[in-house]
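Kindly review both lines to help learners:
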Amino acid sequence: MRVALLSGGTGGARLASGLAALIPPEDLSIIANTGDDEEFWGLLVSPDVDAILYRLAGIFNDTTGFGVRDDTFHAQAMLGSLGEQTWFQLGDRDIGVHLLRASLLRGGMRLTEAVAHLTRGFGIEVGVIPMSDDPVRTRIGTDAGELSMQDWFVGQRCVPAVHKMRFAGIDTARPSPEAVAAVRGADAVIIGPSNPLLSVDPILAVLGDELDRERVTVVSPVVGGQSLKGPTVDMLRDMGEEATAFGVARHYAGIAATIVIDRVDANSLEAIHSLGMRTIVDDIVMDGVDGEKRLAASLLHVLESTDGS
């Protein structure tokens, strides 16, 4: 079975790790959100892409939730001593990745090609594909004014309430040709348990027209009314959406025919079915590597058993 996973850098990246352990690399493509990208000191930082790369390479820092495990921050300390703002933490090894990507882009590579180069360098065989080679930047409208995603998420620690969002550059952005080929050629497209508003909607904004709803399955990032990770629940509420498994289903009802929800949310089955969506009920909380593989195996088993039926 050929699978394309649409992923942010947290829950989606964890599911990517689980799928990569079970699917032949030529049959798995991971399409990453780039709406979170930001430039710092002339370097393009792509947090979701890099989180996926680091997790697949086995070097992701689970303690901090970002960057490379056991990294040092000497370059960041030097910048701080020179009077630079250092609210966005970049480790030394992390900076090495950004330096190489910047060099590849200046040399004429598309972002997709530069990420493929990094992927090979990490020894990763699975395809990791940016959603677009064109810059798309998520902008957050708050009581403190419009902020870049990273300023709101990291600099402001998600404190200002979110009133609206926009994706700067979306009008002219085109999906990466490799991403289009991946979803068109996939037997199943999975939307990972990432933040629907921050991590998935930017991907859908450029790639949504290429998706066949019947082949799309979304994994809920909300379990029992709580976020699996990050500010998902608060953001959904701030934006006037219901922060439940049913609310997630309603958010994706036009794009996905199937949703995977946790067992604790089984009481929402009837309401979800009223949206014209199928449901898969499972334990979707991924505890460690074993949890990633367990959910991936369970999901693949269901999708393979219904493929072509």
In short: The chain has three domains: 30-132, 138-168, 177-306. Residues 288-306 form the longest helix (19 residues). Residues 132 and 174 are 6 Å apart (CA to CA). The longest strand covers residues 162-168.
